UniProtKB/TrEMBL annotation, chains A, B:
The lineage of its organism: Bacteria, Pseudomonadati, Bacteroidota, Flavobacteriia, Flavobacteriales. Signal peptide: none annotated. Keywords: Magnesium, Metal-binding, Transferase. GO terms for biological process: isoprenoid biosynthetic process. The keyword Metal-binding applies. This is Polyprenyl synthetase family protein. GO terms for molecular function: metal ion binding; prenyltransferase activity.
Length: 323, 323
């Protein structure tokens, strides 16, 4: 992905340039630690892409792009505490290295620093971006809480699930494109269109995550195969299987999802039901559907097709991860 | 304190009016819970006072005043997790009731909601206030980390201590007055003067907190008498005592502060050293000094004295708490 490499280099340089040098180091070093370990840095890239689509100035967009990356990493630090996750991007998580207190506080500071990275924008634009940013943050917290609620909630509907992943993933990629577009001076309408593109690509991406957990080549991700099944997670696969299972399959599903066990028979049995109820195909079609909705918003932007090419490439990249 | 009652009623009404009604309730109820239990709500009152001093419109200042209160409560939720505090304002803390995860997340959401409560301001003013707000937040995180560092740091200097309490307490009261003033349309210079008044009153208040822990009537606060001594906290009393103790007193201080014990002899002995080294008087003079510096900034504001009266009353109220 040549254009991704190009953007990734720009973001990496900005991350270096804006390394935190403030004191106390016990607060700022963990922030530098998680930011420097990168990951794919897709969200800041989305800001830059949204900006470039409307011929914006990259210089003006780069700090807001980092703000989005800081925000994303703030959520990761706090989520990892909540999930008691020991590892992130093949490195020990911050609370594992420094304790929960440092994790909480450096996450808080990273969120506040994210806000500060919009401060070079002129007041009108600053306010527009901050409003989107805060709204996105609030919705993400709601999505995170809903995700937690699902664990103990007996029945989770399909709509509730889609809402949850929209809040947890869709709105941040949406807002990233939108903020980039607004910084370039795009109209509210165009910014809204690229927002919706980002939202549906984000939803599709998150559904793909559920799919790949079971049907993907996990080695590529460094994740445990079918971890969601072991954890009794109410993924889209599980929810659709409940809907389409016959009586026998239903009681088998309920049996396995009523206990936590490392028994590999559980994964084997659940996967078989997933295939028999054809939820694997259904989920792939759902991903395709959201991809197409996303593309349809992109189509409506009145710009030459070749300018939109990177967006289509990005969608393909996100949704074809090895499947 | 008649004028305080007046403001407290206004803030209480605003808190009621802006109760969070969003979903999921598992996220928003804890936020309402901590906000509704109030405390003295001095910081939002400072916003309103700063606003009124420069003849601002109360309606315009009330949501930013709540933003400051939300921010303060966000820090309390997260601090209580870090301190493993079971009780706050005579009620169980949020993490005690709902677990650490809800505490982290509802704190995060409260911080983000705080930002949103500035959104009624016009862009120029919005940006001014948000910049102050973010800077204050960042400094508070630094102060909190420094406070934590002091626990294990062998030597804490007097300056380090003053910097820490300035970050943890001074800047928030300072920013509260300043934001209120700016919303009223005060000049940058006047806003800076009232900022510095708030900063030094905040410092004096925090030093008074150390003093009252040992020499105050604790029943009034519902706190344990001399809790800081039991906890080996490096308070201003302790730091000054180290400076002024003779050899014998020094070794006795070091003996008691090298162990954690509920032995009441510890408190008795340490208090005696505090009195013998006269740090009680020194600390009261330090409080008076910061009070006077604060007042001197107030004096410089070119407004009739009667307009400044509530500020002097507030300072007296804060610094004469039963002592």
């Amino acid at each position: 992905m040549e254009f991704l490499d190009h953007y990734q280099k720009i973001v990496a340089e900005a991350v270096d340039k804006y390394t935190f040098t403030e004191k106390p180091s016990e607060l700022y070093e963990p922030m530098n630690y998680i930011i420097s370990h990168g990951g794919k840095r897709l969200r800041p890239i989305m800001v830059l892409m949204g900006n470039e689509l409307f011929d914006g100035d990259m210089e003006k967009a780069i700090k807001p792009a980092l703000a989005i990356e800081f925000f994303h990493n703030f959520t990761l630090i706090h989520d990892d505490i909540m999930d008691e996750a020991p590892i992130r991007r093949n490195k020990p998580t911050i609370h594992t290295l420094h304790g929960i207190n440092v994790g909480i506080l450096s996450g808080d500071a990273l969120l506040i620093k994210a806000y500060q990275f919009f401060e070079d924008l002129e007041p009108e634009l600053f306010k527009k971006c901050i409003k989107i940013f805060s709204e996105t943050g609030a919705v993400l917290c709601e999505g995170q809480q809903n995700d937690v609620n699902f664990e103990t909630q007996k029945h989770v509907s399909y709509d509730e699930y889609i809402n949850m992943i929209t809040s947890k993933t869709g709105v941040l990629s949406a807002a990233s494109f939108q903020i980039g577009a607004l910084i370039a001076g795009a109209s509210e309408e165009d910014a809204e269109l690229i927002y919706n593109f980002g939202k549906h690509i984000g939803i599709a991406f998150q559904i793909m995550d559920d799919y790949l957990d079971v049907f993907g080549d996990m080695e590529q991700f460094g994740k445990k195969h079918a971890g969601d099944i072991y954890e009794n997670k109410k993924t889209i696969l599980y929810l659709l299987a409940l809907e389409h299972a016959n009586e026998e399959e239903l009681s088998e599903l309920n049996y396995w999802f009523s206990k936590k066990t490392d028994n590999v028979d559980k994964v084997y049995s659940v996967e078989k039901i997933f295939r028999r109820t054809k939820v694997d195909d259904k989920v792939l079609r759902l991903i395709q559907k959201h991809n197409e909705i996303g593309q349809s918003y992109l189509d409506k932007i009145n710009l030459p097709d070749e300018k939109k090419l990177p967006f289509r490439e990005l969608a393909n990249y996100l949704l074809r991860r090895e499947s």
